[in-house]
Specification:
It comes from Mahella australiensis (strain DSM 15567 / CIP 107919 / 50-1 BON). InterPro entries: Pept_HybD-like_dom_sf, Peptidase_A25. By secondary structure, the protein is α/β, with parallel strands linked by helices. The chain has 2 domains: 266 residues, 3-Layer(aba) Sandwich (Rossmann fold); 47 residues, no CATH class. The protein is built from 13 helices and 9 strands. A hairpin with a 4-residue loop joins strand 1 and strand 2.
Length: 325
């Protein structure tokens, strides 16, 4: 995979590989499932060869895509929440009484990075209730606790250190971590959700890699949920130029040799040239939509609803919509 192209999505890493190579990625299994409104792509990296080709750890990456989320259609949002819950249950494979720690990563003062804290604000936290009212343990509620640890710049502490301290004290059985991601395409912002059983690197969405939150580091399973909220400007410009060249080639009635030469240019060279031109003016630029406030509000509700109904056996989406949001 081209390591210069900024993307946190496994489906995009697969796309990039296929653009430069013939056939599927070696050591990677792919399964697609679609309904009228929602497409689910399950990418499983099963070998070291696949890990190297994709630039991602071995594990399962599930991407849920729904273009109609742009229309703020409540029925589609509810459908995505149910799909998210179904995929979460399949990945978790834990006892119904297992203690969950949900971690909302990101900076609540920066809207594109506020996804994690916004999800936590809509979450059903129940650990304290079940401790105070043990009779509720048979009601289908799972013990859930949550934290928004902030970012290094405001706390002075690595997120992984904070989480390790919490694990040592309360001993959760598994972690669900939510964070903002980066995509290579604007049309995936607000319309895509990725779930992975490989953990997460806080700050990866803006290229600010911190210590990983993963089973290898923390000693317990970590499910990561992410939504692309930003696009690297160089990546977006690179892809836009490729699409423009392809369109001009289709529309050209004469010799397309000039466009073919442009299209065959090495992606690394084009990307480096674009970022070299941009950097003196704007530095490392990440682009986000103008309606990012509404995007974060909608997507955080969708994710919180999905987590709530996946963790609590007898809680339905109707219950969550009535009492939580």
């Amino acid at each position: 995979m081209d390591n210069n192209i900024r993307t946190d999505l496994a489906v995009e890493a697969r796309e990039l590989y296929k653009e430069g190579n013939a056939g599927e990625v070696p050591g990677v299994e792919v399964e697609d499932e679609s309904s009228l409104n929602v497409k689910v792509t399950r990418v499983k990296i099963i070998s070291q060869e696949g890990q190297q080709a994709m630039g991602k750890p071995m594990g399962t990456y599930i991407t849920i895509e729904a273009d109609k989320l742009r229309d703020r259609d409540m029925d589609v949002e509810d459908e995505v929440s149910r799909v998210l819950a179904k995929e979460m249950v399949a990945l978790l494979k834990v006892d119904k009484d297992a203690l969950a720690l949900v971690v909302g990563l990101g900076n609540w003062n920066v809207t594109p990075d506020a996804l994690g804290p916004r999800v936590i604000s809509k979450l059903m936290v129940t650990k304290h209730l079940l401790e105070l009212k043990p009779e509720y343990k048979d009601s289908g509620l799972r013990p859930v606790c949550a934290i928004t640890p902030g970012v290094l710049g405001t706390t002075g502490m690595e997120t992984s250190d904070i989480i390790e301290g919490i694990i040592e004290k309360i001993k959760p059985d598994f972690i669900i971590a939510i964070d903002a991601l980066a995509s290579r395409r604007m049309n995936r912002i607000s319309t895509s959700i990725q779930i992975a059983d490989t953990g997460i690197n806080p700050g990866s969405g803006i290229g600010n890699y911190r210590s990983a939150l993963s089973q290898d580091v923390l000693g317990i399973p970590v499910i990561a949920i992410g939504v692309p909220t930003v696009v690297d400007a160089g990546t977006m410009a690179n892809d836009t130029i490729d699409m423009l060249i392809e369109t001009l080639m289709k529309q050209s009635k004469g010799d397309t040799q000039f466009y073919s030469v442009l299209k065959s240019m090495d992606r690394d060279e084009k990307y480096n040239l674009i970022t070299e031109v941009i950097s003196p003016y704007v530095g490392k630029l990440m682009v986000t939509p103008k309606d990012i406030d509404a995007v974060i509000d909608d997507v955080s509700r969708i994710i919180a609803n999905g987590i709530n109904i996946s963790l609590h056996e007898n809680v339905t989406l109707e219950d969550v919509n009535r009492y939580v949001n």
